[in-house]
Amino acid sequence: MKKEQRTSSVNDELSKSCAILVVEDNKILSHLIEVCLKEMGHSVDVANSGTMAIDMITNNPPDLILMDSKLPDISARQIIESIRECQFEIPFVIMTEHGDERVAVEMMKAGARDHMVKGGNFMDLLPLVVKQILKQIVNEKKLIETEDHLLKLSHAVKQSPAIVVITDTDANIKYVNAKFTKVTGYTSEEAIRKNMSILKSHKTTPEVYKELWDTILSGNEWQGELCNKKKNGELYWEHTSISSVKNYDGVITDFIAVKEDITARKQAETLATGLGQILDDSLNEIYIFDAKTFKFIQANKGARKNLGYSIDELSGLTPLDIKPEFTKKLFESKIEPLQTQKKSKMQFVTVHQRKDGSLYDVEVHLQLSSFLALPVFVAIVLDITERKKIEKSLIQSEKLKSIGIITLGIAHEFNNILAIIAGNVHLLEEYYKDDKKLMERLRTIKTATDDGVGISSRMLEFTRTESKTTEYVTFDLIDLIKQTIDFTTPRWKSMAQASTIQYHMDMDGIKEASSIILCNPTEIREVFINIIYNSLDAMPNGGRISFNTWSKMDIVFVSVSDTGNGMTEYAKTNIFVPFFTTRKPKGIGLGMSNSFGIIKRHGGCIEVDSEKGKGSTFTLQFPTTRKTVSPKVSSRPEMRCGNIRILVVDDEEAICRLLYKFLSDKCREVKTVLDGTKAIELARKERFDLVLCDMSMPNVCGYDVVKALNKLDERPKIGIITGWGEKLKSMDTDKMKVDFIAKKPFNFQKLAMLINNLFSDS
Question: What is the DSSP letter of 469?
Fold first, then answer.
C-alpha cells in the first residue's frame, strides 16, 4: 500500500463518527464539551457522576471516555477499575484542575491516553487532543492488523512442507527450506546468493519463462510446471506457485515460490500408469469430489489415515461433513470463482474434523478438474497443526518485545519513587544511627528499596537469559529464604485474617547446609516470592507451605511444597511458558516464566511436581561457591567542598526537599526549582558552582537546561540526576556537555563522592 493510501485510510477512519462519553459533574462544562464534540461529528453521551458513567459504559461501551478526575460519588480510578473488572479496555483522557498533577500522574500510570488541565485554553485544545487520541487508536489497529498479516506470511514460508524459495527481483536466492535441499541436492549455503538459473534444465520453453516474468512483475501469482535440474544433473519436474512480496509503498521487493516436486507424477503420466497409486500414497490429504453433489469419489491413504474413515464411509460424505465451520451456502460461495472459471485454483486455511471429533488445522489447495468425463473438485490438503503451534509461540515472543515499549516510562516513575524512599531512609540513618530499633526497621525498608531498584533495572532485560556473574555477590541461600518469608508474611497474614482461614509456613525442613551461592539477591528473592504467592493462590481455603533444604556435592537444593489444588498435566507442562496463567484475570503469566529465566541465569534449574487435588512441589537447584560472604560496610557520606552554591532542578518536589536537606548543611547555599524554565532564568541571573538537573520534566526538559547552561559565560558544573533506564542521548558535544550522571535512586554516599571528585582540584 502506498504512503498516500495509508494516510487516506487513517483519515477515513478518523472521519467516522465515534461514540464519546463525557464524565463531568460540572454541567456547564460538560455541555460545552458535548457541543464541541458533536460539531466534530461525534456521538456524545454525558454522565454527571461516576455511578452513572459505569452504568452507561456497561450497557453501551463508548469508543473514548473524557473523564473528570474528581467526581461527587466515586473517583476516576474506581471507575477505571470497575470497567476493567467487566473486561472493558476503553481509552480515556483524564481532566484535572490546576494543582492536581499527582492525580494526573496516577491516572496516566493507570492507562490514561492523555491529561488535560481545565484551564483557559481547555476548549481550544479539546478538539486537537480528541483527534490525536482517535488517530492513535486507528494507527494501533492498523499496526496490529499489519503485524498479524506479516507473522502469518513469514511462518507459512518457513514451515511449509513443500519446497519454498525466496528470491529478490533479479531471481537471486535469499532463502530455501529443507525440502529444497532434499529435492535439489543443494545445501542452503550453496544455494543462497546464487541465481535461480542454477536449476535451469533448458527443457522449459522461453515462452513459459516470459509468461512467468510478465505475470509476477505485474504483481499477480503465477502457477505452472517447470522442468529443472538437480545438483547431480538429474532432471525433475515441479509444480510452482510464485507470488510477489510488496512493501508498504506497493513496490515489489521479493518473490516467494512454493514448489511441489511432481517428477514421479510426470513419469507416471509418461508411462500412463501409476497415477492412482502415486496419489494414494501421498503424505498429504488428496480428495476428489463431485462438483454438483459434493460427494467424495476418492480419497487417498493420507486422507483416510488422518480422518480415521474408511473409503466406504467417505463415499457417503461430503466436505461439509469434515468442515464444521462451513455451511452449504458458505461453501458454495467459497468455490464459486472456480465454478465460474474466474480462478483456476484456490488456496485457503480451514479446520477439518476427524471421525473421533478432534479438530486440526489444514491448508487446502482446491481446483476444478474432470474425472471420467465428470466435473470434479480436486483438493490437496496440508496438515498445518505444527505450523500453527509455532505461530502461537512466536506471537508470544512478540508480546515480550511489546513490553519493552512501555517499560521506559514505568522505570522512570518507579525510580523517582524509590529515590524519595531511599533518600529519606539515608537521612534517617544519618541522624538516628543510635536508635537500634529504628535502624532495624530502616534496614528492612532499604532491602525492599534495593529489591525495587533491581526490579526496575531488569524491566528492560526481561528476555535476557545470559548470566552476568560480574554483578553477582556471595549470599547465603537460607538467609534469602528467611528474608522472603518475612517479606511475604504481611500478605498471607492479612489474607488469612480477612477470610478467617489458616496459613502455616513450615520451616522445620530448612537445615544448615552448604548454601553459599553467587547470585543477585534481589532476583533470587523474587523467585521465592513468586512461588509463595502462587502457592497462596492455590490454597483459597488455607493450608501449609513447607520449605526444605539440603546439599549434595557442590549443589544446594530447595523444595517448596504446598497443600493446594495442584495442577493438571497441561498446566504443569506450561507453567514456565510466558503469558500462561490459570489465574485470569488476576495473573498475566509472567511470574514463573521470569523465575525460570532468573534461575537459568544463575546456572541452576527448577522442576515442578504436582497432581490435581494433591498440591505442588517446586524443587530448585543452585551451584554453591567457595567465596565467603562479605557484608557491605556503609560509611557516612562527607563532602569536603563546602564553599559552593548548588542549584537543584527536579519536577518532583519530594526529591528537591531531600537534596536540599542533604546538601544545605554541607554547602554554602542550595536553591531548588521545580521546572526547567525557572532553572534557566535563575542560572542567568545568579552564579552557581554546580547544577543538579533531572532529565524528564514537563515543558522544558533536562536536555534544554543543559544546552542553556553550556551557553553561559560562566558555565557551572553540571550533574545529571535521572530515573530513566535507557542510555541517555550523546552528552559529549559542546552543547550537551555534562560533568557526571547519577542514576536514580542514588544514595548520598555516591553523590557526595561525585561532587567531591568534581571539585577536588578547587
Answer: G
